[in-house]
Specification:
This protein has a single domain, classed as 3-Layer(aba) Sandwich (Protocatechuate 4,5-dioxygenase, Chain B). Helix content is 41%, strand content 19%. An eight-stranded mixed sheet has the order 6-3-7-2-8-1-10-9, sandwiched between helices. Strands 4-5 form a two-stranded antiparallel ribbon. The relative contact order is 0.20. A hairpin with a 2-residue loop joins β9 and β10. α1 packs across α5. It has eleven helices and ten strands. By secondary structure, the chain is an alpha/beta fold. The structure holds fe (ii) ion (FE2). Fe (ii) ion binds next to loops.
């Protein structure tokens, strides 16, 4: 059975990618940012996930304003880095996991979350920057396959924090009903507080950001009740990206171990936040058995639904 073992929250500031690509990581301004991810890279190297699900938002790279899906799941075998105006970033092509992605799509859609299935997509800094921060700068291949989940936070209305949290729970259920033994880590990216344009450009609200990180660790349900207007008012127009962290959090246990946290201001004009949350190992035995029972029941429902779909499809071709 596949299992989500941990969640990673990380900002995805494009200037961090530019600093990496242009060899500026040792400059004092950037060293402050990158030094906060050294422990995280060690943690990731030790955790060795088989698959990463990366929740991020596209910044008009794969989707234009002509078409913006609310939740888009990458089911392709590979996702090339997007050209964001300076040529594609010099990072490896992201390899997908089409079998697990298709399974998640089936499970989550039958659970009444209407994902858009994407079979061809380029990925921008929203996905590749957190990958660099946690996996370093591999030349040819990222260490594990990745399932991208793009969320609309660029055009009103984005999904609510509660919807994101519940989607995380549905993703967890999907992963735990996948028969292969896979260790999965889920990323929530974006934020923290920042505003790119308008009279409040440059807004950063460290107090609110830190309270959000506290809530993520100890009381995520409280965060699910934050309305969009509060994100905008307290964390700036682009602070709304933080709802994506709630998908990651929903996919974890109610109670988690916070194993690492980092916060620094600024990177470019953004507050950088980072957290690593692990599901509690001590509850693994009991939880595993209960999850296995739940997974078997869920698998039964999926099989029944697949049979129905097959019957409908067969009828249609007659
Ligand atoms: Fe972003």
């Amino acid at each position: 059975m596949a299992k989500i073992v941990a969640g990673v929250g990380s900002s995805h500031v494009p200037a961090i990618g530019a600093a990496l690509d242009n060899g500026k990581t040792e400059e004092p301004y950037w060293k402050r940012v990158f030094s906060g991810f050294e422990k995280s890279k060690k943690w990731m190297a030790e955790t060795k996930p088989d698959v990463a699900i990366v929740v991020y938002n596209d910044h008009a790279s794969a989707f234009s304003v002509e078409m913006i899906p609310t939740f888009a799941l990458g089911c392709a075998a590979e996702f090339p880095p997007a050209d964001e105006g300076w040529g594609p970033r010099p990072v490896p092509v992201v390899e997908g996991h089409p079998a697990l992605a298709a399974h998640i799509a089936q499970s989550v859609i039958l659970d009444e979350f209407d994902l858009t299935i994407v079979n061809k997509m380029e990925v921008d800094h929203g996905l590749t920057v957190p990958m660099n921060l946690l996996f370093g700068q591999p030349k040819d291949h990222w260490p594990c396959p990745v399932i991208p989940l793009a969320v609309n936070v660029v055009m009103y209305p984005p999904p609510t924090g509660h919807r994101c949290y519940m989607l995380g729970k549905a993703i967890r259920k999907a992963v735990e009903s996948y028969p292969e033994d896979l260790k999965v880590v889920i990323f929530g990216t974006g934020g923290l507080s920042h505003q790119i344009s308008g009279p409040r450009a440059g807004l950063i609200n460290s107090k609110w950001d830190k309270a959000f990180l506290d809530g993520l660790s100890k009381d995520p349900k409280k965060l699910t009740r934050i309305p969009h207007i509060e994100y905008m008012r307290e964390a700036g127009a682009e602070g709304i990206e933080m709802v994506m962290w709630l998908i990651m959090r929903g996919a974890l246990d109610d109670k988690v171990d916070e194993v690492y946290r980092f916060y620094t201001v600024p990177a470019s004009n953004t507050a950088v936040g980072h957290i690593i949350l692990e599901n509690k190992h001590k509850a693994a035995g009991k939880g595993k058995r209960a999850a296995a029972r739940k997974g078997a029941a869920h698998k039964g429902r999926l099989a029944a639904a697949a049979k129905t779909t097959h019957r409908i499809a067969s009828k249609g071709t007659r």
